[in-house]
Model the fold of this input.
Amino acid sequence: MVSTSSEPPLLYEKTAGGIARLTLNRPDALNAINMAARDELWTALLAVRDDPDVRVAVIRGAGDRAFSAGADITEFGTAPSFVESRRARQDRDVWGLMLSIMKPLVAAVHGYAFGAGCEMSLLCDLRIASEDARFALPEVTLGYIPSAGGTQTLPRAIPPGGAREMVLSGEPIDAARALAIGLVNRVVPFERLDAEAMDVAAKLAALPPAAVAAAKEAMVRGADLPLEQGLRLEAMIAARLSSGAPPA
Ligand code: COA
Done:
C-alpha cells in the first residue's frame, strides 16, 4: 500500500459481522506511532469499547514491511515539556484503554513489531503472525525502557527467562521463535495473514458476547491473584453472567 502524509495515520473499518479493523497506516515510516496516530488510536479504541455492534477488533499494519516499528523516534524530545508530555500520556492512556476493553483483540503481525508495536500486540488477546514477523523491545539499547507495558506484559505472556532476554538485550526474535515460546498463537504465510486474522475474529464474533466478555474479564482480573481469590472472582463473574446482570 502506498501512503502519503495526507492519509490518516489510522484506518478504522467495521464489518457487518461485528469486527472492527484498525490499520496503522504510516507504511513509509514502518507504521511508527506518532502523536497523531496515538490520538486516532485513542478514538478508535473508544469506539471498539463502546460500540455494541463491535464484538472483536483486529489490529494490523499497512504495507508489507511492518506491523509497527514502535514509537515515532523523530518525535522524541519534541514535547514542549516533560510535564506536558506526561499529562498527555495520562489523559489519553491508550495502552490502559486497550487493557480495559473486554472484547477480544486480535493482532495480525507482519514484519517489524518493535517497541510499542510489540507492546501493542502484547495488549491483544491473540497474536497471529506471518512468517516474516520480527518482535523486539529495543528501548534499552536507546537508553530507555519499554513504556507501553512491555516490562509487565511480556513476562506475563512468555516464560520469564525469554522475557528477561528480550527486554534486557533488545535483540529481535523471529516468528518461529515467537511461536516456540508462545508469544504468538500461530504463524501463517504473509499472503494468508489478513484472511487468517479475520477468520479467527469472525469465529470469536459469532460467540455469545456477554460470555466472551465475562471470560476475558475473569482472565484479565484474575491474572495476578492467588488461585483461591481467582476462583472466587471466577465464581462471582459466572454468577453475574447467569443472572444477566451487567458488569460492575
Ligand atoms: N520512528 C520513526 N520513523 C521510523 C521508525 C520509528 N520508530 N522506524 C523506522 N522509521 C522510518 C525510518 O526513519 C525510515 O524513514 P525514511 O525512509 O524517511 O528514512 C523508514 O521508516 C524505513 O526504515 P529503515 O530504517 O530505512 O528500514 P530498515 O529496514 O533499514 O530498518 C528497523 C528497519 C525497524 C530495524 C529500523 O527502522 C529501526 O531500528 N527503527 C527503530 C525501531 C525502534 O527503535 N523502535 C522503538 C522506539 S522506542
Q: What stands out?
A: The two ends are 43 Å apart (CA to CA).
